[in-house]
Amino acid sequence: MKLEPEAAVHAPETQRAGRARATSAGELSHIALDLFFEHGFDETTVTDIARAAGIGRRTVFRYFPSKNDLAWGEFETMLESMRSHLATLPEDMPLQAALRDAIIEFNRFPDDELHYHRERMRLLLNVPSLAAHSTLKYAAWREVVAEYVALRRHERPTDLVPRASAWICLGVCLSAYEQWLAADDADLLELIDRAFATTDGFGSAAAAESRAQRP
Amino acid sequence: MKLEPEAAVHAPETQRAGRARATSAGELSHIALDLFFEHGFDETTVTDIARAAGIGRRTVFRYFPSKNDLAWGEFETMLESMRSHLATLPEDMPLQAALRDAIIEFNRFPDDELHYHRERMRLLLNVPSLAAHSTLKYAAWREVVAEYVALRRHERPTDLVPRASAWICLGVCLSAYEQWLAADDADLLELIDRAFATTDGFGSAAAAESRAQRP
DNA sequence: CGCACCATGGCACCCGATGTCAATATAATC
DNA sequence: GATTATATTGACATCGGGTGCCATGGTGCG
User: Nearest CA to the C1' of D10 belongs to which residue?
Assistant: First the structure.
């Protein structure tokens, strides 16, 4: 599983002065993940990873800001492609349909990467320190959703509805992921679809009722 | 703001052999929060907190498993009361209305604690390390919701709909909290109500559409 | 009193994370 | 090919959160 060098760096950086990198973020992340799978996340120290990659411990932190980020790999890149995918959707597409489409696309992986992706997600959702760290990643993901909802509704991304929509989308995704990890023959995309349907009627009755009760 | 000794300990523990506790979890949490408010979370070391409380650093970790948990205080106790509140709701109450009711109750605070609660939430939502740690607390909260939804739907708490519902409820709450913190004259409970309404129609169209497309 | 019991806190230690700095390697330019 | 600009690299050193260990100190009871 060879990755393009500099795959994680945002600037393509065709020709640059100075010493060439000894490794790439993608490569380093894979080395770390293999160790995590084999020995467990907490049992693997950054020193172990550095040794396995043949670089210095300090250098690991130059590629990834923290040990946690190693497990997340190139999430930022994926976020960016979701953002641009949303931008291509037609204005007249219903908002919910657009979100569903973008989220399904975000979670579509080639067959040969599915197993790897599954194991990675198993770590991210089950290892406490990783699950904790994930909040920050999810916030970035929600921001993408909120920005789109705000655009479509002519509001600010910080307004209530964009924010709440983003949270709901995240919840839909993660509950689908949880089911996916529990049943190894499940289809992730179909689960996301079903989770989306859960929001049906949710809140409307309660909110209407409440508005009637409190003048 | 004096707290009962052992307020955080589940067993009431009337008379116990052995040395008496030097402080209580509630008291310690308040001391820590005051320091966090004044100097910032990251700038406050556990040693500072221990010194302010007049106890040893090691002892702090005996009351709270981590520095993060100090900021959360007695969340588990609040969870427990939400669980028992849900248990008192009539079976024939619509599920969404029941959830809305329990969540509103969970977030009702006496006026004199509102300011304190606000500052605490501001920390929890904005300090990165606390926001990260919150995932684990939210998971426990969602578990309470999922258990109730499962009970009402005769499913398991790990099934898709209970899990997704719990996520949606959490999202509703947190987006309301965010608005509340941004506008200091806002009414938290009303914001939660409005956020609940956001779920209206969410997903239903998209999901139906999708089911039609994929045989 | 003496005993069992439990909280305390000092100490050493691990590990993740960060700043500094000198050595080194390479690309572009002359 | 030599020079220079630019980055990488890793060896320190340091800090703070978290943990195991164990002696010590306070409490109630027989």
Answer: A56
3-state secondary structure of A150: helix
Locate A175 and state its tokens. 């509950």
- Using a CB-CB cut-off of 8 Å, the residues of chain B touching A205 are 94, 96-97
User: What's the pLDDT tens digit per position in A179-207?
Assistant: 999 987 889 999 998 888 777 655 343 34
pLDDT tens sequence across A70-126: 888 878 888 999 999 999 999 999 998 899 999 999 999 888 888 888 989 999 999
Which residue range(s) make up the domain with B101?
74-213
Do the beta carbons of residue B148 and residue B98 sit within 8 Å? yes
* Location of structure tokens 């969540």: B103
Q: Does A194 touch chain B (CB under 8 A)?
A: yes
Q: Output the domain CATH number for residue A3.
A: 1.10.10.60
pLDDT tens for B23-42 read 999 899 999 999 999 999 99
Q: B96, B108, B126, B198: best mutation site toward chain A, by most A Cβ within 10 Å? A: B198
Q: B122 with B209, same domain?
A: yes
- Name every chain A residue with its beta carbon within 8 A of the beta carbon of B165: 198, 202
Nearest-by-CA chain B residue for A167:
B171
Q: Is A167 on the interface with B (CB under 8 A)?
A: yes
Are the beta carbons of B198 and B172 closer than 8 angstroms?
A: yes
Q: Does residue B10 register a pLDDT over 60? A: no
Q: CB neighbours (10 Å) of residue A3?
A: 16
